[in-house]
Amino acid sequence: MVAAVTGAAMSPSGLEFLPQGHWVYNSVLQAAFHLDGATANIDAQAQVPGEAGSQVVQGDSSGFVVGRSRITEFGKSTLSVEATSTPPSAEVPYPLEIPGGPYLVYRDVGQIVRLGDPGATIAAGGPLGDPVATADGTLWLFRTTAGLLCSLPRGADRITSCPVAVPQRHTGALTMVRDKPRFVDTTDGTLHAVGAEGLGGAVPLGVATSPQSRPAANDVAGKVAIFDRATHQLHLVDPGTPAAKPVTVPLPAGDYDGPASTGSAVAMVNRGNGTVVTFDATGKQTDAKPIPRDSGGEPRLTRGADSRLYVEGGQGTHVLVVDHDGKVSDVPVAPAEGKPGEQPGTPPGDRPGPPVEQQATDPRPPDGRRNPANPVPAGTTGQDPKPPQKPKPQPQGPAIPAAPPGAPPAVSAAPGNGSVTVSWGAAPDNRAPVTAYHVSWTSSGGSGSTTVGGDSRRTTLTGLTNGTRYTVTVAATNKAGTGPGASAAPVTPAAAASAPAVTVTHSGGTATVRWNQPDLGGGTLQHYLVSGTGAAEQKVTGTSTTFSGLTAGKTYTYTVRAVTSAGGQTLTGAAGSKSITLPARSITISRGRDTTSDNCHAPNCAFVNVSMKGFAPNTTYKLRLSSDDNPDVNNNESATTGPDGSAQYNELNYDVPGNSVWVSVSTPEGTVTSNKIRWE
Question: How many domains in the chain?
Answer without folding.
Answer: 3
